[in-house]
Amino acid sequence: MTRARMPRPHEVAAACRDPRLLRARRDRLGDLAWRAQGRCQTVDPETFFPAPSEPADVALALCRSCDVQGACLAWALDQGDCNGVWGGTTPRERRAMLVAWRSENTPEPAPAMP
Question: Where do the domains of the chain lie?
Fold first, then answer.
């Protein structure tokens, strides 16, 4: 297994503007009820975890037509999951999105009291 490299700054900048990430921020849900509504419920879960040498085209096509794509991606980013296809993204795409996600969702430190 090869080790994943850290995304480069230009990849993170592109991820910040990615419509899928923007949708994930908008559709982020606190409960997991969205999971029962996913298109992935109708196919073999292995479809979403192809071997490194296999294309993820089938999974990506299913995700593109899914109503809960944003919530799914938000969940994967919250979990830090970089395996398989989640919310219409590949692991490589999510690594850059994860940097952007964490930087926006990290609370600012409280100012020091004088």
Answer: 9-104
Tell me: is residue 16 an annotated ligand-binding position: no
Give the integer Cα–Cα distance in Å for 84 and 4: 13
Q: Is 71 exposed, middle or buried (0-12, 13-18, 19+ CB in 10 A)?
A: buried
pLDDT in tens, 12-22: 899 999 999 99
Residue 82 labeled ligand binder: no
Q: How far apart are CA 71 and CA 57, in angstroms?
A: 20
Tens digit of pLDDT for each residue in 26-79? 998 777 889 999 999 999 999 999 998 899 999 999 999 999 999 999 999 999
Stated pTM of the model: 0.83
23 DSSP 8-state letter: H
The tokens for 87 are 């919310």
